[in-house]
Amino acid sequence: MNDRENTGRYALITGGTSGIGLELAKLFAENDYNLVLVARNEQELVQTAEELRTNGREVITVVADFFNPDAPFSVYEEVKAYGIDIDVLINNAGQGVYGKFIETELQRELDIIHLNISACVVLSKFFVKDMVQRGYGKILNLSSIAGKIPGPYQAVYHGTKAFVHFFSEAIRSELKDTGVTVTSLLPGATDTDFFRKADMGESKIVQEQELADPAFVARKGYEALMKGEDMVVAGFKNKMQVAIGNLSTDEAATERMGNMQKPTDQ
Predict the structure, then answer these.
(1) b/e for 152-176, b at 16 or more Cβ within 10 A?
(2) Separation of alpha carbons 124 and 182, rounded Å
(3) What is the strand order of the sheet 137-142 is part of?
(4) Residue 157 is a catalytic residue
(5) Burial class (CB in 10 A: 0-12, 13-18, 19+), 208
(6) 13 SS3 class
(7) In whole angstroms, what is the distance from residue 265 CA to residue 244 CA?
């Protein structure tokens, strides 16, 4: 076991003040990790840090808005200025936008691409180099079952999550025998602030489906990460949905997802 498994370990979590990110932060704090929490709301960061700063655990907060393409570069520089090594990187922050592609706002979609894809790539690029140099590290990237199935009414979001998943699998393969593992977490619809931010309150997937508990999803992701697994689909129904999608044509899978995500009045 690496010496850093025993003391002085740091986990960096983006979007760590709510939802799955917050539940992951709780798990790492419970398991004797110091935390670096990254989010764009300073007040929520301070409040979350106070809640998690127990048993002598250090909680560092970094304010960053990943809609800004320069923000992840600044996050890396700020973390390095603290003189700490990141043992676990959790690329959790992400958003979607709901509606037909011809009707949604382009700038918002570009912001989401910066948040969901660019920030993940930049942070992974810098921190994985440090991890490989040390011979140890773990990365958990939040994809989604949306990354396995095309999604009408969320075309850009599904596309970004497909990128995150296959990007994760690819760099995982490249990192064999380096001591660094990459795990892709694929939850389904989860009871977080995601749907409010995406303006999805009137979609069938919110109105008619039972949403997963973010604590359950976080636990599945944490366990898979610690085992060094390549991916985990959180929840039996989601596993079945992915399996059915794998057996279907892309056209049929897309049609099913579109029916699940369309507005309730259609």
Answers:
(1) bbbbbbbbbbbbbbebbbebbeebe
(2) 10
(3) 59-63, 34-39, 10-14, 88-91, 137-142, 180-186, 231-233
(4) yes
(5) exposed
(6) strand
(7) 26
State both tokens at 248.
Answer: 């279907």
Catalytic residue from among 138, 161, 220, 222: 161
Is the CB of residue 235 less than 8 Å from the CB of residue 224?
no
The catalytically annotated residue of 33, 76, 98, 157 is: 157
In a 10 Å sphere around its CB, with 0-12 CB exposed, 13-18 middle and 19+ buried, how is residue 32 labelled? middle
Instruction: Enter the tokens of residue 45.
Output: 């960061």
pLDDT of residue 1: 36
Structure tokens at 147: 């990354």
153 is catalytic: no
Residues 6+ apart with CB under 8 A from 190: 19, 20, 211, 212, 213, 214, 217
What CATH class has 7-261? Answer: alpha beta
Sign of CA dihedral 236, 240, 242, 243: positive
Model pTM above 0.70: yes
Task: Express each pLDDT in 46-102 by its tens digit.
Answer: 999 999 987 678 999 999 999 999 999 999 999 999 999 999 999 999 998 999 999
The structural domains of the chain, with segments of one domain joined by +, span 7-261
Q: Which residue has the tokens 């095309």?
A: 150
CA distance 185 to 143: 6
pLDDT at 236 (0 to 100): 54
Q: Which residues pair with 12 in a beta bridge?
A: 36, 89
